[in-house]
Structures are given as structure tokens and as C-alpha cells.
Amino acid sequence: MRFPSRSRGMTLLETMVAAALATIILAAATALLLAGGRVVHNTEHVADSHDHARLAGETLLSAVRQAGAGMPEGLWVVSGGTPQRINPVFGGDGAGSGVLAATTSGNLPGTDGSDDLWLVVPDRNYLGRDCAPGAAMSVVKNGTGPIEVNCVGTPSGAPPSNPMLVASNMKSGALLTQASVTSNPPTATVNYLESSVPGFSNAPHKGGFQRTDMVYPVRLLHFFIGTNPVNGRKALMRAEGKPGGDVAGRPFVDMGDPVVVQDFVEDLQVAFGVDATNTGDPAQYDFQNGFKPEYTPGLRSVRVSVVATGRSPRRDTRNQAVLSEDLPLTVENHTPAVAPADGYFRSLFSRRAELPNLASASL
Fold first, then answer.
1. Number of structural domains, the chain?
2. Is residue 22 part of a domain?
3. What residue ranges are annotated as transmembrane (predicted)?
4. Taking the CB of residue 310, how many other CB atoms lie within 10 A of it?
5. pLDDT at residue 181 above 80?
6. Which of 24, 297, 346, 352 is the most exposed place for a label (fewest CB within 10 A)?
7. pLDDT at position 362 over 50
């Protein structure tokens, strides 16, 4: 005899146990997902930090390697109406004073310990075809004042807002500002502001510019750490410069508003390697913090160090800023002030670049 089966539901106790188990499993899964998300966030933050430091450092090194072409024995400029010979590479120290002090945007004194760097950089095409954009022109007549060159007509391409040229004999150069080229077939004439200064040239001891000297466009570049007004964070900045006395007594000043080279860079440190005894041995270079603009023979190397962070703080397993290890870094002679950890991982990019344009043997 068969008895009919009875359908039976879950008891209240069974339902409560199942709900409790489901809650525990969901909580564990949620915690695992959150922890995984924080790991991904922190990994991305560290990668961002590395990228920001590397991109900033490589940009600086690229400019450093181009600086000073045709000026291994210095650059003649007019400062305060008087010619003086300066280094085409120089910079201030965040801990320095006077001409060794660093400046920031608008040539204001630096206050956070970061350095700054000034470079005289020729156009990349200065060894190109005559009269092409950025190419050099050859001097065809000795003397001072306006320079007669072999460029028939005017150089092609749009002129810069504040055109600057260097007239170089591949040993020393002379900075020509507010320059213009006037056609005077079969040659052309380079007119410039400093032409009214008696005896001004790239070789005063020779009586002026000489035939076969080269005249080519240059830029004065000022690198420093400033605040990006868009996000309020520190960044590596670059300003175009022009001759003029800054607050530190140096011969160049910013010409306009700076541009952001790389965001999230909080420190720039520069050390200058000088071969004072002309040994030619990089191991014997004397590295110093800050380098005066007044011409000093023997500058052979620059060590650039930048410290960068990611976009946002790292988080620990409790979703709080990591406070134990994310602190500002000590680099070169700059030890940041003691402050609470802020959760920003710091990446350091430090490279040393030789200055091939300042070694006469390589020209």
C-alpha cells in the first residue's frame, strides 16, 4: 500500500542559517573585491609615479644634451649695457643665495628647496640647409655691428615673437636679441639690439665676428618647479627667457607665462660636474649644487634628479591613506621639512648626462 508523499518547506531555523551563510559569503566576497580594487589602485598609483618621474627627467636630459651648441668657451651677452661672458648652462640651488639662488615662475625666489635650470638651446635644424627654418647662416664679412650673411632673402618660416640668434665661431657665441634679417642681394643683413654696443661680438679679442662664423636661432629655457593652476599640484614647468636681470642677479628672466612640462613633479635637483683641471676623466669631476652664470671653464656634466608622485594617495586595507612610508624624499642636498605622511608614493628619476656641446674636442 502506497502512502501519498508530503511536500515540506524550510523551517524558520533553516532559513535563518541559510541567510546567515549567504551574508557571510557576500561579506567575504565584497571585502575581497574591495581589497583587490585597492591593490589595483595602489599599483596604478606607483606606475603613474614612475611614469611622471621618468617623463620629466627624460625631457630635461634631452634639453641638456642640446644646450650650448657652438658655445664651449661661453656665450657673450649684454647685461646692463655691458658685454659679459656667461655659461650657456647654469642654475640655482634651492639652498643657495645671491646668483646661486633658485627662482620659480616669474623669477620669484624659490621657497621649497627645489633647484632651477637655465639652458641656451639652438634650433634642432641649425646645421640644415641655408635659409631653411632654423638653419644657420654663414657670416661673409668680418667686423662688429650688423652682420652680413650668405642668406639671400629672408629665412623661411614664421619668425618667433622675440627672435634670438647666436653668432658662433664654434668656440664662443654672442647672443643677438630682437634680431631681424633684411635681404640685400647677393647677401642679407642681420640687425639686432646689441649691435649698438661698442665692440660686442663672439670674439672681442679678434676684433669682432669673422667670416665663416655661423648665425642660428636659439631659445633660452628656464626649468623649475611650480604650481599648476588647473589642479593646484606641483609640476615641472618651463618658461621661455630673454636677457634681463632677475631677482638673483642673473642675466636672464622669464619672457611670459610658463607651460607645464609634466604634472605631479614635486622636486627638481641639479648637480653640475666640473672638470677643473681638464683631466678628461668623468670620475674626477667635481659635482656642485648650483652653478653661477659667469663663465667658468670645465663644465662637462649635469646630473638631473626629479621626484614625482601619482595622481591620488594610496590606500591601505582599511581604505585610509598609507601613513607609514609615503614621505618626501631626500635628494642631493635637499632634505624636505618633516611633515606627516600623505599617502603619495614618491618615485625618483636620477640620471647624469655629459655635455657634448661644451667639450671642444667633440665639435
1. 1
2. no
3. none
4. 23
5. yes
6. 24
7. no
